[in-house]
Amino acid sequence: MPSIEKVSAEKHVGDATVLTYHKGHVFSGGIDGKIKIWDNDLNLIRSVDAHEAYLYALTVNSSGKLYSSSCDGSVKFMQPPYDKVEELLLCDDAIEAMCCEGDTLYIGDEKGLVTNWQDDKMLLKYNLVEEVKSLAAEKGWIYTVRDWDVVVSELLPGKSGKYVTRAVLDGKSPLCLLGPVLTDRHKYLAYPDRTGKGLTLVKNLLAERFSIAWQLPDCHEMIVNALCGDEKFLYSGGYDNKVKGWTDLDEEKPKALGEIDLGSCVNCLCCGNDNTVYIACSDGIIRRAKFL
After folding, report:
1. At residue 160, does pLDDT exceed 80?
2. Which residue from 51, 84, 112, 264 has the highest number of Cβ atoms inside 10 Å of its Cβ?
């Protein structure tokens, strides 16, 4: 049966909005502009005044550098041991989505502009037109979504900032890559369907034309607001205050692992070690759950 293993003794003032995990550290951000760093058991290591406003996104690169974005238009970063905040950029546009692939940072804004960065220097700009609410990147492909379509784009080599659209799929934010890595790519891509209450899993392969592996219509009572996954599991949460777990992803229909009612809107999920999932909710509390 799924259960809550750990609950943070301290919390954000207002909603906890974003989460990420890296090598035994949990990072959370909230509408209070703070970033909190926790250990695996949700013991607070440090709380940092990072932004003056609501945090939109957190991501960490392979070297452990933590990037954060806020509705104040800034992207900032911290290096281990995460005690000093530095500014990467400040702009007029809201940056709602970021991700790291290795040490490369990808940033997506409300005007549909995606930029990639290395060594904190911008390399190229890609104008994808539509607002980027959720973003992933893998081996020259970027995955973006707003409220209607999931778009898979292949970035063309060179310095032109050109790309080719490889797929347009019916779906909504958020999205996540999951499953085992095959030929340098995750096997699956998951996202809510256009109703926002169901889930879709597609095969993350050009040869398969991103065909649907399975769909779970109306598996949540309200809009799905958070997704995360690893090699074997997919977790979903949302406005119905519930987190649900799924496994046997290769089957025609996945196996449901049960659900946990948090009593508070689920804003973000991230996978930890040993089949655990961390949960950020509108009550400002961070929780660790296990479904097996």
Report:
1. no
2. 51
d(CA 106, CA 101): 8
Decide: 204 and 188 in contact? Cβ < 8 Å: yes
Measured between alpha carbons, how far is 6 from 255 in angstroms, rounded to an integer? 25
Angle at 240 between CA 134 and CA 131, to 5 degrees: 20
At 101, list the tokens. 């692939």
Q: Taking residues 224-239, report their average pLDDT.
A: 97
List Cβ neighbours of 175 (8 Å cut-off, separation of 6 or more). Answer: 134, 136, 143, 145, 150, 189, 190, 191, 227
AA letter at 248: D
Q: Is 125 exposed, middle or buried (0-12, 13-18, 19+ CB in 10 A)?
A: exposed
The token pair that represents 94 in the structure block: 């809201």
pLDDT tens by residue, 237-282: 999 999 999 999 999 999 999 999 999 999 999 999 999 999 999 9
- CA–CA dist 257, 277 (Å, integer): 13
How far CA 258 is from CA of 168, 244, 245, in Å, comes to 31, 6, 6
Residue among 275, 292, 279, 267 at smallest CA distance from 54:
267
Residue type, 134: S
Q: What is the value of pTM for the model shown? A: 0.96
Strands of the 121-127 sheet, one edge to the other: 95-101, 104-109, 113-118, 121-127
Of 288, 292, 291, residue with least CA distance to 19: 288
| Ranges of H-type helices in 191-234 | none
Q: What is the DSSP string of 45-106?
A: EEEEE--SS-EEEEEE-TT--EEEEETTSEEEEE-TTT---EEEEE-SS-EEEEEEETTEEE
Does residue 112 contact residue 127 with C-beta atoms inside 8 Å? yes
Q: What is the pLDDT of residue 6?
A: 98
